[in-house]
Amino acid sequence: xxxxxxxxxxxxxxxxxxxxxxxxxxxxxxxxxxxxxxxxxxxxxxxxxxxxxxxxxxxxxxxxxxxxxxxxxxxxxxxxxxxxxxxxxxxxxxxxxxxxxxxxxxxxxxxxxxxxxxxxxxxxxxxxxxxxxxxxxxxxxxxxxxxxxxxxxxxxxxxxxxxxxxxxxxxxxxxxxxxxxxxxxxxxxxxxxxxxxxxxxxxxxxxxxxxxxxxxxxxxxxxxxxxxxxxxxxxxxxxxxxxxxxxxxxxxxxxxxxxxxxxxxxxxxxxxxxxxxxxxxxxxxxxxxxxxxxxxxxxxxxxxxxxxxxxxxxxxxxxxxxxxxxxxxxxxxxxxxxxxxxxxxxxxxxxxxxxxxxxxxxxxxxxxxxxxxxxxxxxxxxxxxxxxxxxxxxxxxxxxxxxxxxxxxxxxxxxxxxxxxxxxxxxxxxxxxxxxxxxxxxxxxxxxxxxxxxxxxxxxxxxxxxxxxxxxxxxxxxxxxxxxxxxxxxxxxxxxxxxxxxxxxxxxxxxxxxxxxxxxxxxx
Length: 524
Description:
The chain is an alpha+beta fold. The protein has helices at about 1-15, 285-290, 405-410, 430-435, 445-460, 470-480, 495-510, 520-524; strands spanning about 25-30, 40, 45-50, 60-65, 85-95, 110-120, 140-150, 175, 185, 195, 200, 220-225, 230-240, 240-245, 245-250, 260, 265, 275-280, 300-310, 325-330, 335-340, 350-355, 360-365, 370, 380-385, 390-400, 420, 425.
């Protein structure tokens, strides 16, 4: 039933018939023109475009031309190491990497879908044993391959309906590439042993049909993406106007591969997709061979992209951002208990959590509580994995807050060379001198002390969530009443009536009574 559904959907999409998109309007954006083009060179070049596309509003079409004449297989058939440059162009989840964005070698991936293009240039007189080089000769056959992908390292296995190796659908028969070897048998449609479609660049390959021969290494590719739901999609492609698919070996093997047009399902956050492009070239070369040919590295060349246009429905940016804060809930002479609160947002929930509290303890709760019994700084790491796409990790070190007295007596601990209070920049030495002034007749010195300490406590990494608003208000107060302006505490019209509540909040934070513990408690 599923096979029938996907075949029907494939036919509709290839005919240009797509589901209704509601009131949303399509947008068409040219990312790359014909001048200038975009060249992606080995061993590593990646890029992406910032627009966010929402596939749940309707289908997206990505079209581009790729020129593969710049690809290079160094050496000759005798020295060729079986490696090639891989180029990827397609969609990945917002904020993910620009090459193999999903988990490696996972069926249907987890973070998008793309077209992988690579090549194979050495062939032995048409016997198919390209990488084996038996016998070793210098006959070169330029073949290019285009294969829809959802996870790096899988190749054609993403078309494998049984997800196993070996697997067989229908009768088995001898692999024609290995005659007489009883261990080399092949399954039928949908097996692990499918061979993706190859395009013959120069007409040398005797196994390739004329339909896919003499391409001159230039291919116009159109990928159509369709969201089945928020987390699952399917993509179809044409290469030079022909439906992309793979070769399968039918049960009635007659010496000619049978071409099967097919799309590919993929997983990801369908509401937040971005276009990416990249190439990777091997860097694990045989140094003996490099020395032999006087090379410092094997140059696998480049590909050139042009005439790239994306048509679909623009979405809104909402990348996954992992975050948290910790609040001390129980403080004693022997330990500190901290309530950690998840502040993650964006991406595609539900999330899963992996906490490392820095003392050998871990948790998978969303908002765990942890007690520290060993004095010292503690570093907490949270890794958040969304329902789709890649995890994000954040690490925070909790050094604890210091009072004004601590900062006055430990100038070496200041993380900055100067500090701005009330819009004025003070050197460390000047600020410390002002903090030591008498507060008896001028309360501006009291707020100055507390505000300097609070800002320094935040700068060294303490949680600012409960104090950042107060810091901004205190800064504004000290702009109106600079330190040394002789503000007195008494009187119903004294500015201190608004300044004192700010001081009390800053003092509470500096003493470790709010969202960050005192450094005295942490240090023991």
